[in-house]
Amino acid sequence: MPLIETEALILRSYNLAEADKIVVFITRNEGVVRGVAKGAKRLKSRFGSGLEPFSKVKIEYFLKESSELVTIQRVELTSSSFTAASDPEFLRRFSYLSELLVLFSPPHDPNEKLYRMVNACIDAAAGDSANLDGIVLYFEIWLLRLSGFLQDWSTCGACLRTFDDADQAYLAADLSLICKGCCPGSHRDLMDARNRHLAASARRLSPRDFAQATVGLGDRIGYLSEIMKRSLSRAAGKDISAERSLAIKFM
Q1: Where are the domains of the chain?
Q2: pLDDT means per 10 residues in the chain (251 residues)?
Q3: Which of 15, 24, 89, 28 is nearest to 54 (CA)?
Q4: Contact, 71 vs 35, CB < 8 A?
Q5: Which top CATH class is 1-80?
């Protein structure tokens, strides 16, 4: 029964029995983990405020080979998102993103890029809660990319010709893009060059810079986010478009 010590980000916790909690967290070294925090509901719990959603912590836990749940031994709070998480809109959005994270991350599957992306998104949102839409889109794009499901929108999915700024492109049934020459007679969703460039910019910018770059582009952000939700739904094999329902379920 090895003792594991690592950085982590608390995603959620919920009650177990009278005094305990189950905690879901993502770690730098071990991926998404579920564990039991014994006595966490007691007034003088040794975990203090370290199990609050979106807190950054150093965590120690025992891993049992015969159990899916680890046993959390110690939590040391390093950074709190209490102020941001007290905003209902922040909590709703990041509860939705946390649910996506759990859906797409196999338990105990290390992914440091994913861990760093999630932390960067929370930092950006905590410092700029007015641009949550842009940060949500950034998260969706990067989750698809790191999971291997992000479509390449730089070329036509049918003839493989590289798009230029003058090209009109249309969403195919598999959510790839096809050029006007390959598009069948029936009308499909148009993806103009500005939307293509906006989606591509998420791959080279930080979430903070991407959110700043998308100020005033609410319609484009909403349109692209809806397409990302369709891609995520296809990849997950379930409808995740009802963002509010997912968030309520997760909270």
Answers
A1: 1-80, 85-251
A2: 90 87 92 92 80 92 84 91 84 92 92 95 87 95 96 94 92 91 77 94 96 93 95 92 49 41
A3: 24
A4: yes
A5: mainly beta
Helix ranges, the chain (H): 82-85, 88-104, 112-127, 132-147, 193-201, 207-213, 218-236, 243-250
Number of C-alpha atoms within 13 angstroms, CB side, residue 44?
0
Q: Do 22 and 13 meet the contact criterion of CB atoms below 8 Å apart?
A: yes
How far apart are the C-alpha atoms of 99 and 251, rounded to whole Å?
A: 9
Residue 229: what residue type? Answer: K
Q: How far apart are the first and last CA of the chain?
A: 31
CB atoms within 10 A of CB 15: 11
Would you tell me how many other CB atoms lie within 10 Å of the CB of residue 84? 18
- Give the integer Cα–Cα distance in Å for 23 and 225: 29
In order of 17, 83, 138, 219, 242, the CA distances from 92 in angstroms are 26, 14, 16, 20, 12
Which residue do the tokens 């479509």 mark? 151
For residues 131 and 215, the answer to whether their CB atoms sit within 8 Å is: yes
Q: What distance in Å separates the CA atoms of residue 58 and residue 3, rounded to the nearest whole number?
A: 13
Domain 85-251 in this protein, CATH class: mainly alpha
24 pairs with which residues across the strands? Answer: 12, 34
